[in-house]
Amino acid sequence: MKQKWNRLLLSNRLVLLVLVAAATSAALLRAGTAGGAAAAGAGGDDWKKPGFCGRMDCPRYTAWQKSPDFQIREYDEASWVATNVSSTHYELAVKAAVPRLLEYFYGLNVEGLRMKETVPLLIYYRTDVHPHAGMRNFSVAMYLPYNYQGQPPEPNSTDVWIYRSPKSPLAVRMFQHRAREARVLDEAAALVDALEHAGHTDYESNVLMVASYNHPMKHHPHRRRYRHSEVWMRGDFKPEGRDGAGAVPADTAGAAATAGAAHV
Ligand SMILES: *[C@@H]1O[C@H](CO)[C@@H](O)[C@H](O)[C@H]1NC(C)=O
Ligand SMILES: *[C@@H]1O[C@H](CO)[C@@H](O)[C@H](O)[C@H]1NC(C)=O
Ligand SMILES: *[C@@H]1O[C@H](CO)[C@@H](O)[C@H](O)[C@H]1NC(C)=O
User: Fold this and answer.
1) What InterPro entries does the annotation carry (predicted)?
2) 263 in a domain, yes or no?
3) Do 13 and 28 lie in a common domain?
């Protein structure tokens, strides 16, 4: 009797193991194909979105340098809809800004256009102002859909403006977590360490951009609870020389999926 149970247990475990192995390899395969997205020349027609954009439009870039701790990317010029918020708290600033930006997307623009949502949500602020100093200024922006990058409709609200970001290199650190301020500051510190370690000294650490790809609307085909956030820092970065790694395809490490709860 006991032997029979053991055999039964064992075979159940085997079935479970096989199932887990199958699920894992399927997930890896999916991640592999989604992550295989490579950009041969950002801005070209052969641009493939990185996996962490899911099904949504997101800004184009060329990765100049990739390491596990950071990347140097050159972003193309891009159009964003933006709003400025003063708040004592980063999280409150984002919560106040998002509805204004969504109203623009949902038709509060002079053409009455309804646009599909995009990633990332971008939060721009100074980190050299002490978090307990009282009111701080935040600019919060959403990337505009590819169809409206060239000629974005003007916002109706005077609180909302169109921002055109220049073609420029950025240092980027990715993390699989929500973009709350405490975490953001840890990641920014880690990015500074990584840059210093790699010999990049010409970066601007008092202005930080946080890119949240954690869109609440789960538009990603693969996983539902995947999180992807990034901290971006400006600086005087150069492409790696031909003798180095050279320009490499856009992110493949992001692998599959986006979505989750809110952006912060
Ligand atoms: C919003 O803030 C940014 C950054 O501080 C500033 O450059 C811009 O002029 C502000 N825009 C408006 C409409 O206040
Ligand atoms: C936005 O502005 C345009 C042009 O001024 C106007 O026709 C339209 O009704 C406005 N939309 C809303 C929702 O107020
Ligand atoms: C926030 O912006 C306002 C004007 O836009 C400026 O007067 C003020 O000094 C800024 N506050 C901080 C903490 O930077």
Assistant:
1) Reg_factor_effector_dom_sf, SOUL_heme-bd
2) no
3) yes
Band of the pLDDT at 226, cuts 50, 70, 90? confident
Range of the domain at 128: 51-252
Quick one: average pLDDT of 128-150? 92
pLDDT of res. 10: 41
Kindly report the CATH number assigned to the domain that includes residue 90. Answer: 3.20.80.10
Whether 187 is in a domain gets the answer: yes
* Ligand 2 atom index nearest CA of 111: 3
- Between the CA of 112 and the centroid of ligand 2 the distance, in Å, is 7
**32-44 per-position pLDDT tens digit:** 333 333 333 344 5
How far does residue 143's CA lie from ligand 2's centre (Å)? Answer: 22
- Would 259 be classed as within a structural domain? no
Position 29 confidence tier, pLDDT thresholds 50, 70, 90? very low
Pocket around ligand 3 at a 6 A CB cut-off: 129, 136-137
State how many domains the chain has.
2
Ligand 1 neighbourhood includes 159 CB (under 6 angstroms): no
82 CA to centre of ligand 2 in angstroms: 18
